[in-house]
């Protein structure tokens, strides 16, 4: 990670994750790059509607207003647009009053290579291949899915939910489940209950979130986190002991034992949920903004 960004939490986001660019993307797919470029220029004074990650970004940036000194959260734009076609995006950023000033416009190539240079803790994109490349380079990343949810819940508090295996933790236990089944998985987790799991791609992001939470009294924190996992007792103990060993606190933990996650995420009021399993993402996206994390044994190409 770049060293000149201090203790900031840094989020990189693509244009299509921040704003609804469905219309222009359809032009690109149907009519090609030149027509897309002209479409963006012709419509650059038309404000874009919020996208899947807009509520999360808005709430993260609002944290800066509650802390003295230099901003502790920075959101930057990584876009496949050129600066010319990206003007519409910046016009929309200005319209909504989002404090986003840094950007990389990669002119049709993948912008993922700038994620590490900017020192990012998280990369959110609508392009699954860009997300895979970011993950391969050690940065937490997720593909934002189209959601049936209505968007911002209206709450000021930012609520983020995470799956466990292959997201916060490595996929070492999930590999046993895939290879040998639930009984072997449970037996292994009970036997290894006192052995902390290795960290997954989102461990550093969760740790950075907790650093922000620590700057507020617990009852006044603008961030709330939840673990929403298909695990159940007795496989829960290893998870609890792992987080304890990492010195990381999760505000809420749901051990669902294979139940559908969607309704629980709706009840929690998540602004965004991160999971490696496509089936869980499909369920969650009916209720909340959802990021698919293409990592681990469930996502081998």
3D architecture notes:
- 35% of the residues lie in helices and 16% in strands.
- With 301 residues, the protein is α/β, with parallel strands linked by helices.
- It has two domains: 9-144, 3-Layer(aba) Sandwich (Rossmann fold); 158-299, 3-Layer(aba) Sandwich (Rossmann fold).
- A ten-stranded mixed sheet has the order 3-2-1-4-5-10-9-6-7-8.
- Strand 2, helix 5 (87-95) and strand 3 (103-105) form a beta-alpha-beta unit.
- Helix 2 (22-31) packs antiparallel against helix 3 (33-42), helix 7 runs antiparallel to helix 8 and helix 11 packs across helix 12 (278-284).
- The longest helix is centred in the last third of the chain and has 11 residues, at 203-213.
- The two termini are 27 Å apart.
- The relative contact order is 0.15.
């Amino acid at each position: 990670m770049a060293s000149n960004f201090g203790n900031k939490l840094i989020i990189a986001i693509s244009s299509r994750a921040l704003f609804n660019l469905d219309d222009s993307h359809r032009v690109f797919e149907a009519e090609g790059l030149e027509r897309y470029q002209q479409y963006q220029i012709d419509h650059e004074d038309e404000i874009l509607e919020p996208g899947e990650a807009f509520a999360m970004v808005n709430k993260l940036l609002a944290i800066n207003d509650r802390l003295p000194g230099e901003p502790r959260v920075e959101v930057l734009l990584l876009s496949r647009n050129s600066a010319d076609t990206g003007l519409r995006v910046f016009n929309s950023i200005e319209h909504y009053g989002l404090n986003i000033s840094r950007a990389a416009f990669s002119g049709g190539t993948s912008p993922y290579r700038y994620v590490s240079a900017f020192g990012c803790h998280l990369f959110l994109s609508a392009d699954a291949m860009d997300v895979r490349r970011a993950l391969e380079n050690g940065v937490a990343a997720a593909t934002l899915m189209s959601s049936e949810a209505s968007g911002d819940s209206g709450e000021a508090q930012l609520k983020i939910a995470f799956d466990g295996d292959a997201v916060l933790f490595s996929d070492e236990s999930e590999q046993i489940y895939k290879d040998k089944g639930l009984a072997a998985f449970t037996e292994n987790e009970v036997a290894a209950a006192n052995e902390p799991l290795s960290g997954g791609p989102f461990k550093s992001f969760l740790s950075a979130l907790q650093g922000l939470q620590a700057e507020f009294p617990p009852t006044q924190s603008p961030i709330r986190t939840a673990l929403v996992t298909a695990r159940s007792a007795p496989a829960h103990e290893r998870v609890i002991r792992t987080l304890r060993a990492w010195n990381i606190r999760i505000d809420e933990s749901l051990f669902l034992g294979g139940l559908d996650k969607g309704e629980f995420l709706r009840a929690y009021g998540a602004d965004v949920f991160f999971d490696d399993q496509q089936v869980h993402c499909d369920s969650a996206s009916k209720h909340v903004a959802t990021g698919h994390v293409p990592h681990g044994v469930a996502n081998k190409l």
